[in-house]
Amino acid sequence: MGDMSKTTNTRSSRLIVLAPYAWLVLFFLAPFLIVLKISLSQSTLMQPPYAPLLALDAGWQGLKDFFGALSLDNYAALFTDALYRRSYLKSLEVAAVSTAILLFIGYPVAYALARAPRRWQAILVLLVVLPFWTSFLIRVYAWINILQRDGLLNDALLALHIIDRPTTWLATDSAVYIGIVYSYFPFMVLPLYATLERMDESLLEAAADLGAPPWKTFFLVTVPLSLPGIAAGALLCFIPITGEFVMPDLLGSSATLMIGQTLWTEFFGNRDWPAAAALAVVLLVILAGPILLYQRREARALERR
Amino acid sequence: MAAQPLVTFDRVTKRFGDFTAIDDLTLDIFEREFFALLGPSGCGKTTLLRLLAGFEAPDEGRVLLGGEDLAGVPPYRRPVNMMFQSYALFPHLTVAGNIAFGLKQDRLPKAEIAERVDEMLALVQLGALAQRKPDQLSGGQRQRVALARSLAKRPKVLLLDEPLAALDRKLREETRFELKELQARLATTFVIVTHDQDEAMTVADRIAVMDHGRIAQVGVPAEIYEQPNSRWVAEFVGDVNLIEGRVTTVYPSFVLLERDGLRLRVAATAVVSPGTTAWAALRPEKISIAHEASDSAENGAAGIVTDIGYLGTVSRYKVRLDCGLVVEAAMMNASRRASQTIGVNDRVWLSWTPEAGVLLTR
């Protein structure tokens, strides 16, 4: 009796261990293989708009023909066409600059949150995430409203005499940065807050006791000890911003052509699924580095706990 | 002591909201003293230390160091260093990096910093672990790093906040003597905060016993133990039998105290008048216990042993006197002879001299 319950136990625990892998295979590996296959195909005007298709009824010869028809042409095109290269670089640039701005604004906010009286902290954290309870698109359209020529931003700047005639915000890089920084703000603040909040206050007192004024304590103790939070926040922002589509599409112009839009154009505009698939695969390869880095850090943090 | 005190708390009051942590407290600490602030948790001893370190500011009164008012001087400009109860070692720095932290703030030349770090590592015998991170050290080693770090800047006063509380008993007792030796060797003023009376008695030259933000008594360890000035101090420092009685007669050198037919002669260590209530504080080890009454004893009472506690070096006897009072007596096991073996329910005779007790009026 005891033995039986033990075996069922191990069997069910094995199933539990397998569950995440099953999830990954079903929703990550399988779709990825499909995308990879399409990226090696040729664009056609048929339905579906790529060839070859795997014809299992043709038997061994069909399989041979199928693999023979796959080629790396789409990837070659990616490297020869300057448009693709530019949108990759633009994406990385926007992601890097946005992440830097987010860190610069997010750190003081997270610091203030962590130093706020305990009983206020939960409410303040809630306020940081509260805007995200409204639909994402509504918030983006709100920004279009704020940023347009007779929008709130120009009104405010005019009233404060910072500018003397309305500036064009919409369809500029600035608008894209404003939108991205706004929408990724909690992803930067929350991990930073988590590390800063956990920091032992007696360490700051010890630094002061040993002769370090507050600004030096900040750079010698607080910043080094919050590096895990900085890394988590930066990666959590950088990775998705690189593939960002909505912000540059709705707030930017053709000058802020990021890879997400290029991909969209290939897929829906040109109906060139193989080129779009190749773009996606290359984006994944570019981001694989930061993603692995992030996951390693997370795993290590979990181990330490 | 005519010398100018190094540290002076001058009528200091500190409140946290409704709670008064330090209540109109005045205290002098002298140079090269090993001074202990002893008291139960919440008595304000750590607050006093933090006032000196600069982490708290007094609401009233002044804190002086070398005659100068410390008001408005931030912690990073005070020539005192603190060893934190939690050690507060920087987890991202090595042992050597932790010790060098304070020296770097003083912008000392690199060679001198390295030299001083080595000196400190040697002082606490941690030279081999200089490149380890704090989380790779044992509790005892961490405690030494914290000590070395707080001593590296050669502070005028070293503040120790329960420095041994996190160590296990054996290590704690060894470290007490090391601390005392270190203080004598460095000739630095040490101020230690502790709730452990043994610790305070072992290390300190003088002890201030604190209670509810005030100082109950200041004195050398023997004074605090032998001549407590109140029931509270007598009970907090060591074990004591407190016998309440009515003063019947006052002689020049002793006082007669009466309670339930029991008459006590107590040396006149306090001014009392007949008819008032007073207490005799009697340390258990000053009460002799024997099977037969001794005629020479000026104080004595018979009773029944109700309980015996064997503690290795001493045995403690709980005796119910004929008058109903329960008294504790202690005897060194080394001085106990086989013929004198006392067991539970034995009828025994307790005796003590008038000088054994302290007369207390509060």
For the structure shown, list the relevant keywords.
heterodimer, A: mainly alpha, two-stranded antiparallel ribbon, B: 362 residues, alpha+beta, Rossmann fold, 2 domains, 6-stranded mixed sheet, 8 helices, 20 strands, 23% helix
Structural features, described:
The complex is a heterodimer of chains A (305) and B (362). With 305 residues, chain A is an all-alpha fold. Chain A has helices at 2-39, 59-69, 73-80, 82-115, 118-129, 136-147, 152-159, 173-198, 201-209, 214-225, 227-242, 246-251, 259-269, 273-304; strands at residues 42-43, 50-51. In chain A, 77% of the residues lie in helices and 1% in strands. Chain A has a two-stranded antiparallel ribbon with strand order 1-2. In chain B, helix 2 crosses helix 3 (110-123). The model of chain B has no long low-confidence stretch (mean pLDDT 87). By secondary structure, chain B is α+β, with helices and mostly antiparallel strands. Classes of the chains: A mainly alpha (305), B alpha+beta (362). Chains A and B meet through helix 9 and helix 10 of A and helix 2 of B.
Question: Any idea what the radius of gyration of chain B is?
Answer: 25 Å
Total number of beta strands of chain B: 20
Termini Cα gap of chain A: 37 Å
Q: How does the overall form of chain A come out from the CA principal axes?
A: globular
Number of helices of chain B: 8
Approximate helicity band of chain B? 10-25%
Residue stretches of chain B low in confidence (pLDDT < 50, at least 5 long) are none
Please provide the ordered H/E string of secondary-structure elements of chain A: HEEHHHHHHHHHHHHH
Query: In this structure, how is the largest beta sheet of chain A organized?
Result: 2 strands, antiparallel
